[in-house]
Amino acid sequence: MIPDGTIDVLSQAVERGFFGYTRWNHMDYKQSISSWFQQEFDCEIDPEWCVYSPSVIYSLSVCIQLLSQEGDKILTFTPCYDAFYHCVGGNKRELLPFSLTNQEEYFSIDFAALEKVLKSEKPTILLLCNPHNPTGRVFTKNELNQIIDLCNQSHVAIISDEIHMDVRRPDQKHLPILSFLKRLAVPTVLLSSASKTFNSPGLGGSYGIFSDESLREQFLAILKGRDGLSSIPYPALLATIDCYRNQKGWLEELNQTIDDNFARLKEIIEPDTRIQFKIPEATYLGWINIEQLPHSMEAVQKVLIQQEKVAIMKGETYGIEGKNYLRFNLGAPKEKIMDGAQRLMRAIQYLDKQ
Q: How many domains does the chain have?
């Protein structure tokens, strides 16, 4: 469910019955975004930098076209969101995977190796996902400084997908890439949306934040001129404004629910010491390592789906690094999470007896 207050706003709009073409290029919309960044992340954003987009992946596709040429390489940290592979490949670029270093289910960046890859492979873009999907890492100030310095050094543009920025554990602070504006010397774009946080992707809508006016105008020329997508869906406009202005309390409750869900998931799977799982720093996604189980992923998936009637995404969807992982979505009521976790354990116990 989206927040009750947002449902009320949308219900009132339905009662009025006006759903014509809708403008987004006004301060009500843009300031709701910039104010959220100031309030939540202490990050100063000029409202004029904020641009509507139909989706984060649409924005990513257009930014790839603006910041690179066909055949160029685009580096991203893997495992990664599966849509990155499709978006990069669909634009006739090559996705250059850079594996995160796994130290007891804590994922980090080998910066010496990254520097070598940037110099030898010469990607034109670093596609950052922060917080990271699927590992849940929240990259630190030191890590982001090093990423920026290496990109500056090798003249690599940065596209930062920050759609998971609001769903974090209590001790974690998200640092938007544009909070490092004075350090950045390469083209940099931040992509996000209220829809992931407030459960409203069906309404459509996202945004890009472009501090560079020329790049922003090029993006708008494609959005409006080439693709004819300059009108935001009215419900998406209303939901974004209301969520960012009025639904901070709802978000706090959501984060508490997800924290509780992670705690329950860990309690249920922890007795089986063959399963390696660390509660992530952010997102509502559990990244569960089942490498030590004596069962193939295919066997596990078959029992989960056919016998236990539960779908838990296999990790290989997110790259070869995920071949021994399951990605468990905890964005649901606690009872459903407990039931899904118990079904997972029953599936494993069933296979153990075969």
A: 2
User: How many Å apart are CA 150 and CA 114, to the nearest integer?
Assistant: 8
Query: Residue 249 in contact with residue 97, Cβ under 8 Å?
Result: no
Task: Answer yes or no: do 152 and 14 share one domain.
Answer: yes
What's the average model confidence in pLDDT over 278-307?
Answer: 97
Residues 262/279, Cβ–Cβ less than 8 Å: yes
pLDDT band at 354, cuts 50/70/90? confident
Task: Provide CB contacts within 8 A for 248, sequence distance 6+.
Answer: 39
Detail the DSSP E strand segments found in 42-103: 50-53, 73-78, 94-99, 101-103
By CB atoms closer than 10 A (0-12, 13-18, 19+), residue 196 is buried
Omega cis (within 30) before 79: yes
How much is the pTM?
Answer: 0.96
Q: How far apart are CA 37 and CA 283, in angstroms?
A: 18
Domain with residue 168: its CATH number is 3.40.640.10
Q: Which residue has the tokens 């350090």?
A: 183
Contacts of 81 (CB under 8 A, 6+ apart): 129, 133, 134, 161, 318
